[in-house]
Amino acid sequence: MLELNGIRKSFGRIEVLHGVDLHVNAGEVHALLGENGAGKSTLMKIVCGIIQPSAGRILVEGRERAFATYDEAIAAGIGIVFQEFSLIPYLTAVENMFLARELRTPLGLLDRKAMRGRAQDILRKLEVDLPLDVPVARLSVAEQQFVEIAKALSLNARILVLDEPTATLTPAEVEHLFKVMRELRAAGVAIVFISHHLEEIFEICDRITVLRDGEYVGTRDVAGMTADRLVEMMVGRRIENSFPPKPAPDPAARTVLEVEEVQLRRGGPVSSFHLRAGEILGFAGLVGSGRTETALSILGAYPAARCKIRLDGVQTRLGDPADGLAHGIGLLPESRKEQGLITSFPILQNLSLNNYGKYRRGRWFIDFRKERAFTETAMDQVRVKAQGPDARVDTLSGGNQQKVVIARWLNHDMQILIFDEPTRGIDVGAKAEIYQLMRDFTARGCAIIMISSELPEIIGMSDRVCVFRSGGIVATVEGDAITSEEIMTHATTGRVDHVA
User: Fold this and answer.
1) pLDDT (tens digit, 9 = 90+) per residue, 384-428?
2) Average pLDDT of the chain, as a whole number
3) In 33, 249, 421, 445, which residue has its Cα 20 to 30 A from 143's Cα atom?
4) Which H or E element spans position 294?
């Protein structure tokens, strides 16, 4: 169905793809893997006509093609679900799904009934129930992801590219998606699947192609592969253990944050918790359980029915995130593109946004040499792959964009950091580095609240875990009780026995 031979791509004098090959058969799910910056998304944008290759051949069903635009690729039967959402926030799900290819009546008017019916059919197939008549900006991140998937399915594509489609989905939602993918595979659709979750690769994929630093490493059948061998192909080295060792609990550690009571406006239980210096406190729970809203309520970024907190024993009220910054609390938001970065700015200015105090020369001036040196050091610390500090953020891969956000906060003088999905879209090699940076931060006596939908991450990194359900905390577990079974029991049933 799809054959790429010797694809090369250069941006200026920098070549980012070095003669990549990819062959995808009809009726198969083909994984495309590699670290952030390996060239996966660039290669797929070439397939879809969004950017043009510098050299190489593209064949669709045996016929050589050259797509000047995305519309030409769609006409040839190619659809893509982008890693970053391509939805217009103030249009409804139906309007987004049929944007620029609206169904019309014989009189040329918009056939809204037909479009709504088609949208309902596709979402029913996905086993997803979401409101169709509200702007997608009011939908959850997971619901927006399903709108993206439904939009691609509405194209009746014979070749479907899914770039990190499961990053925002719960396990049940992922299984729904895989069910649809199996049905499409049985119908002869060729699917290219990009994911950093290796367990998903072994569950749904038939073959794997690996890229490393823009180079083709190899193609293998999933049968007979192991996770260790796959990681070694991706990063060129073995990763023995992603999670750094947890420090021994310190009963004498001071309490840096005490949330005496917090309740969301949408209801739910009144919750309380505390955060000690030197620890990572995990927030676990299903999508919609109130994890992120609770954390944002503390900062005054989300309206709460009540919120009483103490910072270092002093009763405090934070009116907005700027107050949090002044009190030494930083936030790495769930949506890096909308809330964590100014994507049209270069890396240097994004890292400087809340760090200008470090480069001040006198009262009015900035030491630009110091600013550049700081940026280069921070980029090296988290291994941002870019042409340099002046590279625009919107030219980076999703994972490298996340690293820029993390680098900015890790190098600021914060006492508490709230990490909301810190490794979403991050490859396995970079995850280990991010986890070590987090532990280095807490080793300095600072503290982290980590919100994550990945149970292995919650279990491997957290010293204690607050489990959320229906808008509030139903359990706090620690030590040997931090297991997937214990967390999911509390998250799904609200059972509160065995609470530490």
Assistant:
1) 888 889 999 988 877 788 888 888 887 677 899 999 988 876 767
2) 86
3) 33
4) helix 291-299
pTM: 0.64
Rounded to 5°, angle at Cα 41 from 36 and 24: 115
By residue range, what is the domain housing residue 6? 2-235
Residues 393 and 341: beta-carbon distance below 8 Å: yes
pLDDT band at 182 (very low <50, low <70, confident <90, very high): very high
225 and 310, same structural domain? Answer: no
pLDDT at 86: 83
User: Looking at the structure, do residues 120 and 186 belong to the same domain, yes or no?
Assistant: yes
Q: How far is CA 263 from CA 267, 297, 327, 448, in A?
A: 7, 9, 22, 21
**pLDDT above 70 (res 241):** no
pLDDT for residue 213: 81
Could you tell me where the DSSP H helices lie in 32-99?
A: 40-47, 70-75, 93-97
Alpha helices in 164-256 (DSSP H): 171-186, 198-204, 227-235
Which residues make beta-bridge pairs with 315? 310
Tell me, what's the pLDDT at 239? 54
Taking alpha carbons only, the member of 297, 492, 289, 321 closest to residue 414 is: 321
CATH number of the domain that 287 lies in?
3.40.50.300
Same domain, 378 and 453: yes
Let me know whether 197 and 312 are in one domain.
no
CB 386 within 8 A of CB 394: no
Give the separation between CA 10 and CA 52, rounded to whole angstroms.
10
AA letter at 197 = H
Contact 450/280 with Cβ under 8 angstroms? yes
Tell me the one-letter amino acid at 212: R
Note whether 188 and 296 are same-domain residues. no
Please report how many Cα atoms fall inside a 13 Å half-sphere around the Cα of residue 118, on the Cβ side: 21
How far apart CA 113 and CA 125 sit, in angstroms, is: 18
Give the span between the Cα atoms of 60 and 158, in whole angstroms: 10
Based on the fold, state whether residues 89 and 208 are members of the same structural domain. Answer: yes
Q: Give the residue from 205, 235, 265 where a domain finishes.
A: 235
pLDDT, mean of residues 318-342? 85
Question: Phi and psi at residue 23, in whole multiples of 5°?
Answer: -125, 120
Number of domains in the chain: 2
CA distance linking residue 153 with residue 160, whole number of Å: 8
